[in-house]
Write a structure and sequence with these properties.
Elements lengths: L1 E7 L3 E8 L4 E2 L4 E4 L6 H14 L7 E5 L3 E2 L2 E2 L14 H9 L3 E5 H12 L8 E7 L3 E7 L2 E3 L8 E2 L2 E2 H5 L1 H6 L4 H19 L3 E5 L18 E4 L6 H11 L3
Amino acid sequence: MEILGVDIGGTGIKGAPVDAQRGTLTADRFRLLTPHPATPDAVAGVLAEVVGHFGAVEGRVGATFPAVIQHGVARTAANVDKSWIDTDVRATFERATSRPFTVVNDADAAGVAEMDFGAGKGRPGVVVMVTLGTGIGTAVFVDGELVPNTELGHIEVDGHDAETRASDRARDVGGLSWKKWGKRLNTYFQKLEALLNPELFIVGGGVSKKPEKFFDYIDVRAELVPAELRNEAGIVGAAAAAAREL
């Protein structure tokens, strides 16, 4: 079964058809820049171009969105215009494309991809996916079932919103060494572990390609592994979420 997945981020909107049984892309990704300001009409217009690029792939489309999503409605807005708050994202996309949509939080989508096809496949118990990028995204699973919209990148650590201190952007902007950043991550992961006691942490985001740079600084009881799907996780997870609604 081939389903179109679209990953909407603060800098780019990218999509590709996905083999929903295997979790693999069946064509090259197509990417356009996220408009600025990223208002509903502007984002929907670019999304329609991405969907139109794969016009031969029919049926339901899966899309990620950088927000808390409840029944298709955005309750927050991260790296998109604040006018998205309380906007029906699903209905907006369906009007723009005349296609049925499944819309999920971006970190949740990445987690679904890893649980279905990657580092978390077949893993029981509590599993926490942490994506390290512009911010910190999280996805929590209990025996393979998603607990949606956890937003644990915003827990307070040492008096700060965690993602302002421990995201990959914080490392880059602050000019932090891998060791100094790794120690900040250690504080964050230990706080997460104290709250949730997972059996497995999956670390995603671009830095997951370099675990040797910082994993040794993170001291937790849970197993710590890099994500396997990397840049394709959002697209694959969005498509997998859409497949579940068919």
